Amino acid sequence: MTRSPLHRLIFGGLRRLLYLWVRSETINQSSMTLNLDRSRPVFYALPSPALTDLAVLDHECTKAGLPRPVLPVAVGPLQEPAAFFYLTPDPDWLGRQDKSGAPPTLERLVAAVSQHAEEDAQIIPVSVFWGQTPASESSPWKLLFADSWAVTGRLRRLLTVLILGRKTRVQFSAPIHLRELVQHNKGHERTVRMAQRLMRVHFRNLKTAVIGPDISHRRTLVKGLVHAPQVRQAIADEAQRENLPLAKAEAQALRYGNEIASDYTYTAIRFLEVVLSWFWNKIYDGIKVNHIEQVQGIAPGHEVIYVPCHRSHIDYLLLSYLLFRNGLTPPHVAAGINLNMPVVGNLLRRGGAFFMRRTFKGNPLYTAVFNEYLHTLYTKGFPVEYFVEGGRSRTGRMLQPRTGMLAITLRSFLRSSRTPIVFVPVYIGYERVLEGRTYLGELRGASKKKESVLDIFKVFGALKQRFGQVYVNFGEPIRLAGFLDQQQPGWREQDHGPQYRPDWLNATTARLGETVARHLNEAAAINPVNLVALALLSTSRLALDERALTRVLDLYLALLRQVPYSPHTTLPEGDGQALIEHVRSMNLVAEQKDALGRILYLDEGNAVLMTYYRNNVLHIFALPALLASFFLSSSRMSRQLLGQYVHALYPYLQAELFLRWTPEQLDEVIDQWLVALVEQGLLRQDNDLYVRPAPSSRQFVLLTLLARTITQTLQRFYMATSLLINSGQNSLSAEALEDLCVMMAQRLSILHGLNAPEFFDKTLFRHFIQTLLQQGVLHADAQGKLGYHDKLGELAEGVAKRVLSAELRLSIRQVALHRDDGLETSTL
């Protein structure tokens, strides 16, 4: 291009045209500080072919009084038409690049210096940076085109010049003297490779200092996956099973790797930080972070796996943003393949997302590639994030853990446990979730909509609403080695080969999932919306006088301060009146004024939505609400009888709500709550008896509202046992019982005006039945039909009399006894 006078003339015109827009500066070097020998020829090495970089270099050399790169230069008898070359050679006419080859100019220079002992050539590595460093750039638009480690195309380079050309910087590295390299007498080829290696080091170190380290491991990692022994074996098996050539099966493995792997870039992280800083400030009143210092303390020297609860699509963006802002490395995030959409998927991938299919069944090659990818991340120390719930919770409850990712992690750790793994639970609580209205439709029966790139534009409509605050609490870390020491004391002595899958893996993984879920619930952030929803949804008309609501909220705050759920649980600031004002400002409650004051209520649109926010903290109030419920039908109860009933129900409440206490700790916690209820005037102690307030008193109303918090859960328990007992021994399978429970719950919700869609959630009934089986209360025969303990009916009825109204018990028994014959036939 600049090898002839005509080319140089054209190049000069292009340079002048370029500098109508571009402004450049040299960062650090001049002809004096470079320590150049002006009697020796000077050559410039650029990392890769780019006419714009060459034009900027020529301009800066002219300004600094350095030899121009586009002019001819001689090294002894060798005449070079220009004094520059690219370390990565120019592509051929088909666009192919031989990255392993050496630049022809460098080959000729080494030969000339080797053949003429008096000659030398000075090679100056030169780097051109477009725009500021990603760390200091504040414009999200400019960050998209800032320098990174990724290879760029011509269109992107043109856009980079147009957008970032006003802040172009040139940096000259110290010159490399070819004479010094030749004097090592390594031969021509080795000397050329030595020079190339020195220049690559120059370029890499400089680029690291300017734009940050190359944390985009994708280019080397994906190719390395197919060479792992487990993947090689899976490739061979795939080729044999599908009757494919080995090369074709290997190409398929590479495609899987590219589909899965993230393309983590520092530039994208900074871009997301700038955009999200604007977004959070625009849509939320603030983000409150608690207990992050413990993560900062354990991150060094550990493989950190963040396991947040999943409430919204923005969970992983929020967590990565907060970690980055607090000096922690943003994690590689497991994302569903449904999010790999045009534009959005690419940006998420560059921000650290790796994509996974919903199921691995029937595809052992994909499974092998995915497992090896995660193992590589773990062994290299990259922090990782995934959601143990699998998908977003539409009900606000903690979903039952899906143990697939935990099992992969556990097997990887058994395979190589050099780097200790720590799970960090992260509770993310929203006063108003961004997808709230979408969840509302799904809870009412609408089908889940597939994610679309057009959903981005819906966010702009949400900017007009007020979403309150976001709370991010980091829970108690779980050290995997310590967990295994408790669950499987001899695990360290076992032979952990690459294909090792111990018999205890499934059971241990399930317990690990339950432990993660409990730690997540322990870190709950209780906010004003949670407490207002809890109070209003416990009333029969979804309404309370403002002064009465204030008293209820003050009671809840007092109870939680006296008996904290866990050290990681956080409470809102202010009193009951302040909480009401905050929720009212978010338009989540309606009000009606009369001569006696204001009545606050939930309208039809918000009533179902508020069950979501109540369910966020249902586990916090489960035990005190259960204790209170025993006094709805009984005026007094002994401590012994209270303990007996609580112990009978606790395994099922714990399994559904992931309560934190072991059965051995339960009595101590019961006593703490009884003391608190007595101090707040909701109960009175008379020796070993606990006595409720007079039914006409204000305290009894407060006790009743607290008890109703857990009523729907107890109704579902009674419903399932009533259906089972009325059907008789060994007459229903677990699946048939589930279906009957759902249909019965739907009918009761209509008859009694229940406004909680999770009341007839099939998964809740399924898990209750599984817990009954685990507790030995139920057993399945060879045909899968359920038998039950002889005293199940007596126990269920005895507890139900204490905690459920006679009207509700009668309604459940009638529906169970006289269910539609056609319905029964269809479900059996």
UniProtKB/TrEMBL annotation:
Organism: Pseudomonas putida
SUPFAM superfamilies for this protein: Glycerol-3-phosphate (1)-acyltransferase
Cell membrane is among the record's keywords: yes
GO MF term (any one): glycerol-3-phosphate O-acyltransferase activity
UniProt cross-references to Pfam families, sorted A to Z: Acyltransferase, GPAT_C
The family this protein is said to belong to: Belongs to the GPAT/DAPAT family.
Motif HXXXXD motif mapped to chain: 309-314
Stretches assigned to the Phospholipid/glycerol acyltransferase domain: 304-431
Keywords tagged on the record: Acyltransferase, Cell membrane, Lipid biosynthesis, Lipid metabolism, Membrane, Phospholipid biosynthesis, Phospholipid metabolism, Transferase
Membrane topology qualifier: Peripheral membrane protein
Stored SMART domains: PlsC (SM00563)
Species classification: Bacteria, Pseudomonadati, Pseudomonadota, Gammaproteobacteria, Pseudomonadales
Enzyme Commission no: 2.3.1.15
Pathway annotation from the record: Lipid metabolism; Phospholipid metabolism; CDP-diacylglycerol biosynthesis; CDP-diacylglycerol from sn-glycerol 3-phosphate: step 1/3
Name under which the protein is recorded: Glycerol-3-phosphate acyltransferase
CDD domains listed in its UniProt record: LPLAT_DHAPAT-like (cd07993)
GO cellular component: plasma membrane
The record's note on its domains: The HXXXXD motif is essential for acyltransferase activity and may constitute the binding site for the phosphate moiety of the glycerol-3-phosphate.
Gene Ontology BP annotations: CDP-diacylglycerol biosynthetic process; fatty acid metabolic process
Subcellular location: Cell membrane
Top-level enzyme category: transferase
Catalytic activity: sn-glycerol 3-phosphate + an acyl-CoA = a 1-acyl-sn-glycero-3-phosphate + CoA
